[in-house]
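Why do we care about 3D structure at all? Because function follows from shape, and shape follows, mostly, from sequence. That is the central idea of this module. The next example makes it concrete: a single protein chain, its amino acid sequence, and then its structure expressed as tokens.
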Amino acid sequence: MAIHVIRAIGYPQNIAAIPRLIEHLADGNSPIRNIVAQMLDEMEPEGVVPHFIQVLLDPTRHYDWEAEIQTTCSILWAMRQEYAEACGPTVAHLLGYFLGRNALHDKLDISYFLDVLEKIGPSCAKYALPVLISVINQEGTSEVSSQARQLLASFGREDQEPYKYILASFGISIDEGQK
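And the structure:
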């Protein structure tokens, strides 16, 4: 019943409920998860995104931070483009953070991060290219590396140009995928 009241109050009057709503999103067993996702997607990103970023960057607030990161990435992938775009630099940062600690294979699936960056598309090139190169380097010929290569190929030549020598060392021409 409370969820219907929060929805009826409407945005921005219900902004104080956003942290609690995001907790329901992170709980895969929450019976109102789908309704909450729809509610948040209907709100303005500037009211919701800071709460997503807090979930992504604050490991002290969560029992299982890594699981919440994956859940948040899957939510961002399912929501409107504006949400993914606003959280994109944070997602790329976290991908690099966990890659640098070789901690991804223990608790995290890299594809969740890459899905968000794919949703953003070529506009994430400026901040995502270095971490995609790290994914390709670390993951070799895996499916995740292929996913990173595909995303990298969608970026414009001007974004790839500063990285042309390192890309060439992986057998990637900056002309691949360019139209």
